[in-house]
TrEMBL record:
Pfam families: CheB_methylest, Response_reg. Residues 158-350 form the CheB-type methylesterase domain. It is found in: Cytoplasm. NCBIfam families: PRK00742.1, PRK12555.1. The gene is cheB. PANTHER family: PROTEIN-GLUTAMATE METHYLESTERASE/PROTEIN-GLUTAMINE GLUTAMINASE (PTHR42872), PROTEIN-GLUTAMATE METHYLESTERASE_PROTEIN-GLUTAMINE GLUTAMINASE (PTHR42872:SF6). This is Protein-glutamate methylesterase/protein-glutamine glutaminase. It comes from Hwanghaeella grinnelliae. Belongs to the CheB family. It catalyses: [protein]-L-glutamate 5-O-methyl ester + H2O = L-glutamyl-[protein] + methanol + H(+); L-glutaminyl-[protein] + H2O = L-glutamyl-[protein] + NH4(+). GO terms for cellular component: cytoplasm. Phosphorylated by CheA. Phosphorylation of the N-terminal regulatory domain activates the methylesterase activity. GO terms for biological process: chemotaxis. Keywords: Chemotaxis, Cytoplasm, Hydrolase, Phosphoprotein.
Length: 358
């Protein structure tokens, strides 16, 4: 057996500490090395125990979890998984945590906590093991605060209004999606995004992107017409697919089974875009664990789409983009900072660009 992932659980609720300890310890590859009821106790135990991963509650006594996270990511960067209540306030705080460098988020149920979390034990264990492999960067304090409102330019006629951009991402993807979307032109093609995220958080994700990018961002709704200059985020707990309705593209939400363990699934989005947009689409796969989206991206490439994968050096978790690259689904593999420009170039370059894999 290899080295176990050593976890410190930080939560002011004794019940949550007990449940998370039981759920995580049930995995033979995880060892809960300690618990803490507040950030001051946690700080001492981090120094003493040197955990691989910390789970951190947001609302705690003595020091807010976000303030403590900022100190961790500034002074001693390490993988942190946030445990946040599935409420509007909890969702807003969670996205601030992800901006500060948290790897992922676990939704804390508001009722029947023990049954809910034990029913998701394999998911929670996977999140922790994935976090242990993540690339953690020190906090960049120079980046613009995401609460800053951006003035949206009116959309103009675009040279290829039928183009569709489909983006799939998972662990570490919230900030990656934000960076890509924020650098796209306001009059660019429509963008559909599947980001693995608990149901209750995706609307807040869309709202935050809408406030901080020049595009119009919303959580997708069933039957919603797809327009250039707009971004549509798959709601948590529903698959997002693209369909045609007459001359228009529209969003279709599907409440079907999980695909690759996810709902929404990147494969569902990519497959649907391959079916109805084909060569008039651009597929992008970003950071994330597992293989969701890889097969769908290959279908997109085979349908004539231009496909992009995030490279290993800039991925928080080089899982999904690695699998996509290895099966031949990726035409261009790029660092995150170059992806938006490559999307814009691909919109205007035409199909000849799609023959080259780099």
């Amino acid at each position: 057996m290899g080295k176990k992932v050593r976890v410190l659980i930080v939560d002011d609720s004794a019940l949550m500490r007990q449940i998370l300890t039981a759920v995580l310890s049930a995995d033979s590859e995880i060892e809960v090395i300690g618990t803490a009821a507040d950030p001051y106790e946690a700080r001492a135990k981090i120094k003493q125990l040197l955990p691989d991963v910390v789970t951190l509650d947001i609302e705690m006594p003595k020091m807010d979890g976000l303030d403590f996270l900022e100190k961790i990511m500034t002074l001693r960067p390490m993988p942190v998984v946030m445990v946040s209540s599935l409420t509007q306030k909890g969702a807003d705080a969670t996205f601030r945590a992800l901006e500060l460098g948290a790897i992922d988020v676990v939704g804390k149920p508001t009722s029947d906590i023990e049954r809910s979390l034990k029913g998701r034990s394999s998911e929670l264990q996977s999140i922790i093991k994935c976090a242990a492999t993540a690339r953690v960067k020190p906090l960049d304090k120079n980046r613009r605060a995401s609460t800053e409102q951006v003035v949206k330019a009116p959309a103009r006629a675009y040279s290829s209004s039928e183009k569709i951009v489909a983006i799939g991402s998972s662990t570490g993807g919230v900030e990656s999606v934000r960076q890509v979307v924020s650098e796209l032109p306001s009059d660019g093609p429509a963008v559909l995004v599947t980001q693995h995220m608990p149901g209750g958080f995706t609307k807040s994700f869309a709202d935050r992107l809408d406030r901080t990018t020049s595009l119009n961002v919303s959580e997708a709704s069933d039957g919603q017409r797809v327009l250039r200059g707009h971004v549509y985020i798959a709601p948590g707990g529903k698959h997002l697919a693209l369909v045609r309705s007459g001359a228009n593209f529209v969003c279709r939400l599907l409440d079907t089974d999980l695909v690759n363990g996810h709902k929404p699934s990147c494969d569902v989005l990519f497959d649907s875009v391959a079916d109805v947009a084909g060569k008039d689409s651009i597929g992008v796969i970003l950071t994330g664990m597992g293989r969701d989206g890889a097969a769908g991206l290959l279908r997109l490439r085979e349908a004539g789409a231009f496909t992009i994968g995030q490279d290993e050096a800039t991925s928080v978790v080089y899982g999904m983009p690695r699998v996509a690259y290895e099966i031949g689904a990726v035409i261009r593999q790029l660092p995150l900072a170059r992806i938006a420009a490559e999307i814009t170039n691909a919109v205007t370059a035409g199909p000849q660009k799609q023959q080259m894999r780099i």
